Amino acid sequence: xxxxxxxxxxxxxxxxxxxxxxxxxxxxxxxxxxxxxxxxxxxxxxxxxxxxxxxxxxxxxxxxxxxxxxxxxxxxxxxxxxxxxxxxxxxxxxxxxxxxxxxxxxxxxxxxxxxxxxxxxxxxxxxxxxxxxxxxxxxxxxxxxxxxxxxxxxxxxxxxxxxxxxxxxxxxxxxxxxxxxxxxxxxxxxxxxxxxxxxxxxxxxxxxxxxxxxxxxxxxxxxxxxxxxxxxxxxxxxxxxxxxxxxxxxxxxxxxxxxxxxxxxxxxxxxxxxxxxxxxxxxxx
Length: 285
Ligand SMILES: C[S@@+](CC[C@H](N)C(=O)[O-])C[C@H]1O[C@@H](n2cnc3c(N)ncnc32)[C@H](O)[C@@H]1O
Description:
With 285 residues, the chain is α/β, with parallel strands linked by helices. The protein folds into 2 domains: 2-78, Chemotaxis Receptor Methyltransferase Cher, domain 1; 89-282, Vaccinia Virus protein VP39 (Rossmann fold), CATH 3.40.50. The protein has helices at residues 2-8, 12-26, 35-48, 54-63, 67-78, 89-106, 123-134, 151-159, 172-178, 191-194, 207-213, 230-243; strands spanning 112-116, 142-148, 161-162, 179-181, 187-189, 197-201, 218-221, 248-252, 266-270, 273-278. Strands 6-2-1-7-8-10-9 form a 7-stranded mixed sheet. Helix 1 (2-8) packs across helix 3 (35-48), helix 2 packs parallel to helix 4 and helix 4 (54-63) packs across helix 5. Residues 26-28, 79-83, 87, 118-120, 124, 148-150, 153, 203-205, 222-224, 227, 253 line the site of S-adenosylmethionine (SAM).
């Protein structure tokens, strides 16, 4: 792989401008220590398009009319889609046993929208659907949406077939109840659970794409902020706050925190998990 980088010549200046453009469009930031990784992830694509250098690829992205849609391909190449069922359970337990019942009782006629943003191959929203089913809370008033910027990841979510690695935190009982063994060690999820999720490709860095989904009462943005720069985390948190309903909840990953950012969300301990809450009396924007 090193061959590609050297033969294509990822110079200091090409790296900097390419890195900055990718950051601007995707939110994902490659610092100097991840320079080889970026080169390795993109080199085959640069060659496939017939360019002789990363600099030519940069010009294509920046100035060619087709450049904008190339970022859809870039998402598929540079993202880390690691995920599994029943990951980081305490926050999901707070969601199912505290937040959803509270929203349902304060909003008896209305619907509740749960958005798993950056859901990768879908394990997170499917886990939520299984847990809500176990808690007997699925009465048709809950809508669950799973989105990711990677169209390849969403394609897999739509297929609903999962390999062994996805089950590392799944109990035998839940696996038996909700999954069926299909070809080559892959399991399909119960269609009655799978059909509860609406899937879409959404780039969180793009406010126009984010806005319609951010009208959700619960937004999960877990294990994706770690790939963004502080400025992008702040920008996305602000956009979410702006478009979320007056009472709404943002859940981030256990290794992620918004504490050092001047966001309007209040961090609240709900059932032992720290959740970022937008409250009605915060109606300022
Ligand atoms: C490590 S996975 C996290 C999956 C799941 N949320 C979890 O916690 O298990 C990170 C996901 O973030 C997605 N991602 C990265 N940048 C994104 C962006 N700008 N908009 C939406 N999704 C993005 C990646 O495609 C990847 O699937």
